Amino acid sequence: MGRDGNKSCFACCFSTPTTSSSSAIKLLFFIVPLILVSFIVFVLVPRNSTWALIYSLPPSTSAVAAAAANSSEKLGAAVHAESSQQVLDLPSRVVKTVDVGGSSGEATLSDSDEVAVNRSASPPLSAVEAVTKFQELNETKEYSSLNTSITDSDSLDITINGTPNNATTSLNETIALPLKHSRQVRTKLDKVEAGLQRARSAIREAKNGSQLQDPDYVPIGPMYWDAKAFHRSYLEMEKQFKVFVYKEGEPPVFHDGPCKSIYSMEGNFIYKLDVDTKFQTKDPQKAHVFYLPFSVVKMVRFVYSRDSRDFSPIRRTVVDYINLVAQKYPYWNRSHGADHFMLACHDWGPEASFSLPHLEKNSIRALCNANTSERFNPVKDVSIPEINLITDKLTGLMGGPSASQRQILAFFAGGVHGPIRPVLLEHWEDKDEDIKVHKYLPRGVNYYDMMRNSKYCICPSGYEVASPRIVEALYNGCVPVLISKSYVAPFSDVLRWKSFSVTVSVDDIPKLKEILMNISTRQYIRMQRRVLQVRRHFEFNSPPKRYDVFHMILHSVWLRRLNVRITDDHGVVAN
């Protein structure tokens, strides 16, 4: 058939018999391209079309999608935010907002994490594939451990760096990025910090929430600054807190310590944490804190030259060890030591920490000698109890009659050293039948029996502020009477010491009996019952038990870690 015949054939398909030949040709040229375009669109566009999604995105989103399609490489993203954050304010025992610059108020929580741009030789996704993948990511990111859901009050002011031409795009906008690289935006450190943020929020909300149930123990009563917040914090610690113990160093100076002496907590903590499987992690990238496992007691014995008065060998040992782990691992330099902690019960513990400025000023120092006049900082440092253990068990160290059966008003026996004890003995040694104060106990009189028969146990500082008598008093159901200067009592971030102890200033030592006699019988009975309740937090157990002294030390370190935010770019946001 000729050309005219073809035209007539096509015309017959789209016109009536009465239509002229010229009109049919014009209609043919209009319809054929339309049919071809429709066929191409039908074949190439996916059935679950995402074009509607593209048009619904903000203008900047389409630009990012186009950039992803045209780029010859895949780009990761760097997340970096610098602002104020939610912290657990230890002195006031509440969660509040603190501005990084120092002013407190209602500020916005922010991250400060920087991730290097990741590049790949694989071809990029097309614009349609990128948007489709990102739609799938949006549907699942609520459940993804790498993308934490944050309430409006805790929203992060995050920018995306690494887009073409150094563009900065707000995270409040939906961004069409390939799925793989969207997940790489969050580093392992980001994941750790996101978990800490969830814990902060849970602790803050616990204050006004209902009392949580616990099969072992439910903190309640005036012995706690905020029992609900403490309970939630403790449960959050059990759920996620991880400690990395540096394996470098050899005994006896490292990974070793005294377990049966006045400094027993130093050795017992090192040992318990070394063998712990619940809180210790072998992966440092999952760790919230890093433990420096040296013993100051062992340094004094094996490194320090007795009577030399030269402390430099101990300082060199500390500096050399931190230099070793700083060269082998990136974590000390990343935070300047802010997520590292040491523990020492020796009197020279603070002095050992002065070996490095960052160890003293940034790191968490868990010290028995918690003396603010010697630069102990209650906001970042931890006061731990001094416990004089004779064996690895508490057998025979705990007990005592009820409050009504205690006949002695107050008791003390101990050596005369330091500035406070001479004043106490001067005023009360063998001066009063109700105040039993002795330098040495009479023959045949048992020290612990005297405590168990006393209402109040006097706990004056010696050369250093800490005294094992505080824990001994609690073990024996005796209300402690604290006489010291610049001493921060153990776990005072959680425990409200004035509800179960008596504090007497050095100047008021002459009025000691008057102060104690002015406490009503009803109030004393209340305090004594509270002593029996809180002493579980000072009990040493082998193996450790929930809420005991080992876990309380860990919890205090956990609280300090909640008060800082570490970033990959050597940044620390602190209280």
Automatic annotation (TrEMBL):
One GO term describing the cellular component: Golgi membrane
Localization annotation: Golgi apparatus membrane
InterPro entries the UniProt entry points to: Exostosin, Exostosin_GT47
Record domain Exostosin GT47: where: 238-518
Residue stretches spanning the membrane: 24-45
GO molecular function: glycosyltransferase activity
Keywords: Glycosyltransferase, Golgi apparatus, Membrane, Signal-anchor, Transferase, Transmembrane, Transmembrane helix
Main location (coarse class): Golgi
Family the entry assigns: Belongs to the glycosyltransferase 47 family.
Protein name: Exostosin GT47 domain-containing protein
Organism from which the protein derives: Gossypium tomentosum
